[in-house]
Design brief:
This protein is mainly beta and 950 residues long. The strands form eleven sheets. The chain has a 22-stranded antiparallel barrel. It has a five-stranded mixed beta sheet with strand order 3-8-9-6-7. The radius of gyration is 29 Å and the shape is globular. It is a multi-pass membrane protein.
Length: 950
């Protein structure tokens, strides 16, 4: 981005890439128009210099007497960027983000109106914008589309060290020059430009220690961690060459002890009244823990030999190694047990009772030792050149982004056996569990026998099911702009083109030993435990009333028995082959856009209008099980050859035209009314575009499964925004009210189509050897664009104020907060709570509220932040993914810092912070709070440290 003498440069001046919120600065004049039309994901270029200078003169008048520090400076900078933007945007800047020891920038983004986050291991990660989940959010870094480590398109912001991000802009209304993809909005992250640093040379060192007050409650967890970063910025060759380097490292343990109820997918008459009740799949009690270790690196070089030419090269790399274990109990398939003394809800769900073995082996009580460790990385970078001559500005950019993810996904279960030490031990059949759910409170759970006796307990099942994803994007774009100096209506015309190639690859594999329910075969006997590979662990804290369990080192047990896990793709488990596929997207986009700057009566009207053309080609290669032996021979990871699987390539091409309009009516310098309208699109999740499919024969019918389709259309919507913004005279505050409406044409859902015309869709059907004719059409379990669609609409209220008019020390007091209300008629049917019920749009919370009370004076800076989100629907991970309601939650954070102003300690800032101050848990349920889902506590995270700036 190009910022000349702007406030952002001054916000970064004392802190480089890891700006401390406690630093002190006196902002200089800002070219506000440059802020409004910076080079971002859109490829925008600066507007006409004459008009920019006129706006700058007014802005200098407003800013000339302002001296702000810390969080106040961040608020004022963000207000300034929003004020002069040509679209509906919200912004967080370096003093805000870089001054926080957050795992990601998500916490900072959730202070913006209408933005909320879902917590993973207690930390905010993926974000929702205006009630729409991360799959509807486009994310760029330095103008370049980012690959995703999630296996879909959802960006997990904990991959990006907050110390390395100088600004994040959320575009809530699009324009033709923005990269398409954000139905909900676009998040543009930016790193610093060293030529905009006010110092010739600067360096920053940051070190913080962390402590989680629940870490000691989890067996094997470490409550302590740290964050460290260092950066350098320098200007050379008479300020024509700028170099910047940054490194950030984080080690942060996490804990999340939990009770987790499973879906009500069973049916059984438990009270003898002749009517079946709904029984749960079971429930889990686990100590979850682990650690996250992240290393981030960033480099940038900017060469500006003249005012007319700039060449910038930048690169970013982040490696995230997250260990995640879950140890405890799982009580499984309650409907297979004998249920006595049942507690039955009005709608028929069983929420308590005693469940005992009755000879059915598929009811069991397991000790679980799961491993969901993940290694992810993101590499992003590119080269950008800008050339200006007269009224012409040309920008070229080439770049790439590569995201990788490798998830272990290992499970191991121990069961009680009779006759351990004999040649043929048998699983115990006298188990019983008594339980009573208590809505969103901790339930009562007890067992009839001690499950920590290693003389009876044995390792019955180990499974490893790795997920491996790679998402690579390469792109090149060219933008050309012509500025008019004397046109009374159009200030500039801009056009551009972008070509991108994206390739996604998913790999699945499997390795198993033993059996879920202890029914071993093929010599896979239960494996004995000893003091060296297992020990007794007990729940503490909120879950201290639950029974103790065996913590088992499954790898050590296997090694003692000469067994080595070797996951492979297998025909015997052909889902590993079907779900291993590639998706390729080639996109050519071109746009033309005009900037409006005219007068209506005595008032100024600014904005832009244009259209973006997008030509998309999406294809997938995968395996289809045709089952007739006519396919070319293929060998799996075990060396087994099969001729039943055909490699197929399927997909389609389509063209879209996306018009957009942004108008800003200036009543005066302090008040403006914005209106925006556009057609927008978001492409389907990458993992839903795979072409592979399994199959089975039923009589003379050929059937396929897969729940994916390379023929899916994007999400399309018509988006409208109307907002009023008032900016206070001293530039220390703003009030904004916004209305938005999005009419979404369709959503993607899994659907079984019976019968399905396979031949008509270009899908090969095998030959029935008995008739020598193709099998008849059977059912197809696939993904489709439904014809329901629906709307998302709402209102946002935003208020920010630094109370400079207060006397003396009180002038450092301020407040920023927002309220957002969203609603939608989009629903889907869920039976996870037993009775069919309509649930809302995933990710949408009707009310999202946040507020920050802050104070800064003479180097001291403190703030108390709270963010509330109403209940919402989303997926939770247990044994399988489940769609549940998340209960309302309020997360409170506190931070205080002090920056020494003079003497030998000048440049040193001390910091103290508490995240999740009230230890807010996550609570979920299946439609009704009587049907407990997850109860999970993450603990308070304390940080103490310092920043030293040179």
């Amino acid at each position: 981005m190009v910022f000349k003498r702007n406030v952002l440069a001054l916000a970064l001046a004392s802190v480089g890439f890891c700006a401390a919120s406690s630093s002190y600065a006196a902002p200089q004049a800002s070219d506000s128009n440059d802020q409004a039309t910076q080079t971002t994901a859109s490829g925008d270029v600066s507007t006409a210099k004459a008009k920019a200078q006129a706006k700058e003169d007014q802005h200098v008048k407003n800013m000339s007497t302002i001296t702000v520090t810390g969080f106040s400076r961040s608020i004022e900078t963000s207000i300034d960027v929003k004020r002069y933007a040509d679209t509906v945007v919200d912004v967080v800047t370096a003093a805000d983000i870089g001054g926080l020891p957050d795992v990601s920038i998500s916490d900072a983004l959730t202070r913006l109106p209408g933005i909320s986050a879902e917590r993973i291991n207690g930390e905010a990660s993926a974000i929702n914008i205006r009630g729409m989940s991360g799959g509807f959010v486009e994310t760029t870094l330095n103008g370049r589309e980012q690959g995703a480590t999630s296996g879909s398109r959802v960006i997990q912001f904990d991959q990006y060290p907050s110390e390395m991000i100088s600004q994040a802009t959320v575009y809530k209304s699009p324009k033709a020059s923005l990269i398409e993809g954000g139905v909900a909005g676009t998040v543009e992250m930016q790193t610093a430009n060293p030529l905009e640093n006010s110092k010739q040379y600067s360096a920053v060192f940051n070190l913080r220690g962390s402590y989680n007050d629940r870490g000691n409650e989890t067996d094997g967890a470490n409550p302590r961690g740290y964050r460290a970063s260092a950066s350098f910025q320098g200007k050379f060759l008479n300020n024509t060459l700028g170099l910047g380097l940054g490194v950030a490292q984080m080690y942060q343990p996490h804990v999340a002890d939990q009770f987790n109820g499973l879906a009500y997918n069973g049916s059984k008459d438990v009270n003898g009244d002749g009517v079946n009740e709904y029984t749960s799949e079971g429930f889990e009690m686990q100590q979850n823990g682990g650690s996250a270790r992240r290393n981030g690196f960033m480099g940038v070089a900017v060469w500006e030999p003249s005012d007319s030419f700039t060449l910038k090269a930048d690169g970013f790399y982040s490696h995230f190694d997250a260990t995640n274990f879950g140890r405890g109990f799982r009580v499984k398939t309650l409907s297979n047990g004998a249920i006595t003394n049942p507690a039955i809800q009005a709608d028929g769900q069983v929420t308590g009772g005693t469940v005992s073995s009755n000879g059915d082996p598929y009811y069991t009580i397991q000790t679980t030792n799961d491993d969901d460790s993940t290694v992810t990385s993101v590499l992003s970078g590119g080269l950008n050149a800008k050339w200006t001559t007269g009224s012409w500005t040309i920008i070229g950019d080439v770049g790439m982004s590569r995201a990788k993810s490798d998830m272990t996904n290992a499970v191991s279960w121990t069961l009680p056996f009779n006759g351990m030490g004999t040649a043929a031990p048998t699983v115990a059949n006298d188990l019983s569990a008594s339980y009573q759910l208590k809505n969103l409170n901790i339930p009562d759970v007890s067992f009839n026998r001690d499950l920590t006796d290693r003389n009876q307990m044995a390792l019955a099942k180990v499974g490893v099911y790795p997920y491996i994803y790679e998402d690579k994007t390469k792109a090149a774009k060219l933008d050309v702009r012509y500025d008019f100096f004397n046109n009374s209506v159009i200030s500039a015309v801009e056009a551009g083109a972008r070509y991108s190639q994206r390739r996604y690859q998913a790999d699945r594999a499997i390795w198993e030993y033993g059996n879920d329910f202890g029914q071993y075969q093929n010599g896979q006997v239960p494996l004995a435990l000893n003091d060296g590979n297992s020990h007794t662990a007990c729940f503490k804290g909120n879950l201290s009333g639950f029974p103790c369990f065996l913590s088992v080192n499954s790898l050590a047990v296997l090694e003692e028995n000469g067994i080595t896990p070797t996951p492979t793709r297998q025909w015997a488990n052909d889902w590993t082959q079907i779900q291993s596929a590639t998706v390729s997207e080639n996109v050519l986009a071109a746009y033309v856009m005009a900037d409006v700057d005219t007068m209506i009566g005595d008032h100024n009207l600014t904005g832009n209008f244009g259209v973006r053309m997008v030509r998309s080609s999406q294809y997938s290669e995968g395996l289809q099980n045709i089952g007739d032996g006519s396919a070319p021979p293929l060998t799996d990871g075990l060396g087994v050859v099969s001729t039943n699987y055909l490699m197929v390539r399927r997909g389609k091409k389509y063209t879209d035209y996306l018009p957009s309009l942004n108008l800003n009516y200036h009543f005066d310098d302090a008040n403006q009314l914005r209106f925006a309208a556009a057609k927008v699109m978001s492409r389907p999740p990458l993992n839903k575009l795979m072409a592979g499919g399994g199959s089975w024969i039923d009589g003379n019918k050929y059937n396929m499964w897969g729940n994916t389709s390379p023929f899916l259309d994007p999400f399309y919507a018509k988006a409208y925004d109307l907002s009023f913004e008032h900016y206070m005279d001293d530039n220390g505050g703003a009030i904004a009210a916004a209305l938005f409406y999005k009419k979404i044409d369709s959503f993607i859902e899994d659907r079984t189509i019976d019968p399905f015309d396979f031949a008509g869709a270009g899908i090969q059907v095998p030959i029935n050897p008995n008739t020598q004719q193709p099998y008849e059409n059977g059912q197809y379990q696939t993904a489709v664009n439904n014809d329901k669609g629906g709307y998302v609409r709402g209102i946002e209220l935003d208020y920010s104020k630094v109370f400079k008019s207060l006397p003396g020390a009180w002038s450092g007091l301020g407040f920023t907060g927002s309220f957002a209300y969203s609603q939608s008629k989009v629903t889907e049917t869920s039976t996870l709570g037993g009775t069919p019920m309509q649930i809302g749009l995933p990710g949408l919370s009707p009310r999202v509220i946040n507020g920050t009370l802050f104070y800064g004076y003479k180097g001291f800076d403190t703030r108390l932040s709270a963010r509330y989100r109403d209940r919402f629907v989303s997926n939770q991970m247990s044994e399988d993914s489940q769609t549940v309601y998340y209960a309302p939650e309020t997360v409170v954070d506190y931070q205080a810092s002090y920056a020494f102003q003079s003497g030998s300690l000048k440049g040193l800032s001390l910091l103290f912070q508490v995240s999740n101050l009230t230890d807010q848990p996550t609570r979920t349920y299946f439609g009704s709070e009587d049907l407990t889902g997850t109860l999970q506590w993450f603990g308070r995270q304390y940080y103490v440290g310092f920043t030293y700036a040179l």
